[in-house]
Amino acid sequence: MARFLVQKSEPLNGEVKISGAKNAVLPLMAAALLSEGTCRIMEVPQLKDVEVMKDILISLGATIEEVEEDILDISFPDVIENEADYDLVSKMRASFLVMGPLLSRTGRAKVHMPGGCTIGARPIDLHLKGFRALGAEIIQKDNYVEAIAPEGGLVGESVYLDFPSVGATENIMMCAALAQGTTYIVNAAEEPEIVDLANFLNKMGARIKGAGTDTIKIEGVTSMKGAYHTVIPDRIEAGTFMLAGAITRGQILIHNIVPDHVKPITAKLRECGVIVEMGDEGMYVVADQKPLRATDIKTLPYPGFPTDIQSPFMAFLTTVEGSSTVIETVFENRFMHVAELNRMGANIKTSGNKAIIHGGRHLEGAQVIATDLRAGAALVLAGLVADGTTEISEIYHVERGYEKFINKFKALGASILRIDD
Ligand code: EPZ
To answer: Relative to the CA of 189, which ligand 1 atom is closest?
Structure first.
């Protein structure tokens, strides 16, 4: 298995360009299933997860042309397979996002149950609640989920989400796009990736209003055409590099960032005394002007503090004097990185969904394990300031979701080696 060897680095200095968002491009690719024409998606990040989604769409009948390194043309024939390949779906949870568009376009969809993962059970009950509300019959058997539209086709309905689930909002929005009549998603997720998907669907001919608020209205249409779309920048990658500048007390300039999308991260870094300013060229993060101080964070659905930045932010908090608290409200098991950070000399105590960080201690390089994509990034950040070398295993998690991860860090002066056993 491959590993990262992270050396203690000087304060990071330089510029980094953020890639297209992983959590936007995956639903955008699934949405191409709805189109009778060719969809062109631009600023596609080169990620393992994108490769898996490409393979899934090809297994459903897609033709995918890599026009350029970051431009994909996706088209489907009139008749589409409607059973997603088990081996492929089991590789990535987000593949469940093909369920909604498949059901909407072909009247039937059969997808393997997405697995949970280290951060939580990650059920799909809200996705299925939406499909049922539109009239689909759901059959769950042998770890498969099958959805079948009624004879007369899916009919719009109002669906209340007990939790503003990102994936459920995306799946139901895509499913309702070709249903008859009007659908309302109430208590919908408001993430920027939802808005990006709605913009793409509307370019394809859908009639969606309210994306980015807690109520989304979808008026069904009879068919959708091809469209061009550029993926929004990855706000979680942006937050990760903001924290790389902060934890090393450096000065970095971040290009291709939407300030609105990282507002909670900016606010919290400023509370710690980090200078974060948006200039004409991009976002400046300056953390070498004065001693930094502790703060408290609580993760919430957007526009609250993003759960995906919880672990990288915690790594940063281990380096500031004082006690900080981190409360994780979105996933039930997202403190797996705490034990790894403590192995590096951090002093973090957890109780339920609350962690208390006694910061300002010296970190020592150690052998640690990446338990999920963002925990892996957190350990890299910690390794940048820990004495000696930090060896991080299970880094496939990290490489799934961060494009050119090491190159970007090296360009900022970090010393990271990738060792392939
Ligand atoms: C998306 O996952 C992201 N993934 C996650 O990013 C992100 O952490 C998450 O949204 C929250 O922002 C992609 O977009 C591909 P949810 P998703 O449905 O859609 C519960 C990363 O590191 N829930 O909003 O799966 C669920 O258990 C990944 O890039 C139900 O109860 O997240 C969880 O506690 C990690 N029933 C909460 O909602 C359901 O039917 C949030 O899940 C669905 C979800």
So the answer is: 24
